[in-house]
Amino acid sequence: MVTAFWILLVVAHLGALDVLVFHAWQAKVPFRASSRTEARLHAVRHIAYGLQFLWIAHLQWHGWALLLLLPLYVVDVLAAWTDVWVENDSRAEVGGLQRGEYLLHIILSFLVGGYAMAVAQAATGWWHEPTAILWAAPAVPELARTYMTVMGASAIGLGLWDFMPDHWLAFLALDRKRLGEHVPSPMPLKTPKRIVTEVVLKANAQDVWDRTIDAANHVQWDLRFDEIQYLSQPSADDETRELLYITRIVPGIAIQGTGSYRNTDHLRSSAFRFDSDDPKSLMHNGKGVWTYMPQDDGTLLFRSVYDYDARFGWPGAWFDHLMFRPLLSLATEWSFETLRRWLDEPGFAPASRSDRASFVRFAIPRLLGAALPKLPFARGWVGSGTLEERRELV
Q1: Which end of the chain has fewer CB atoms at under 10 Å, N or C?
Q2: What angle do CA 243, 245, 248 make, to 5 degrees?
Q3: Domains, the chain, ranges and CATH?
């Protein structure tokens, strides 16, 4: 762990340079409302790195105890990826990222890679030891270890301060009104949040209607659901369908929700509502519409716009804004593209795209800023859902 200690110490100083010079002085990230999301991500990373400084300087994790470190590194990686995704928009007011910051990020990437390899090498040996968390410092000078400890505590303190500077005092005072005032909104109040998806299909409205409204057909192409069951038989006039949705997160763990279609205009549009009482579900109280729009060239523009509320207060809203809603938008886009291929390509099997690992390989480049596809391929985004917004994309 000595190698990891010294690499992390170098990373700490370069990270401090990045925060002070590029974040605070040049881009003024902590002080601009348009950079609030980026500032919160930096706060998460300050805390994550502060905890790493502390354990590297003082602890060893043997056997199954190593698994306790996984959430720390997963949170750090997710925050780093999300930071890359949002920072260009966050810095738009100040001309984007500086060249010096790009160079510093490249250097830090190499160093963090070396640090990760050093930690993994040490952890390989620890894994075979009896499970325990040991107070065992690396063989470095006491002064260096003390210095690392101070840096760790400072980083954690800075992260908490960045997150909610007045929140703790309000909490200790048990003043709920002040607490509500001081907890920052996880996103700008005017941030568009509807999930919009569209695709051009070489099919008539009746064929598309049958593939989307019928539960047995719907579940074949929609990655978001593993099962769709009728809670009541569809009425003869096809006006109402009550449904149960089941999504398996991992083997043995599933989320259930209910929904209903309200046919407002046969073969042209279908409004729907959905909700979930499952405590594992982030979403509740959602609604949206599917529209089926014939085009002059004989194709059909199939379009979906929907929205929902996020549970778990502002932490749930923040997580939804940064991670869940963009991923759900991409899952909807992936599903619409599966539907397009099912209708347009003879012999295509929708099940060939049900592998979530393939979806992850598709989603990562998009989350990192890959261009939106062009019609007729499926494309999706989080926005207002207005026609004016669509015209800007065509």
Answers
A1: C
A2: 165
A3: 2-182 (no CATH), 194-393 (3.30.530.20)
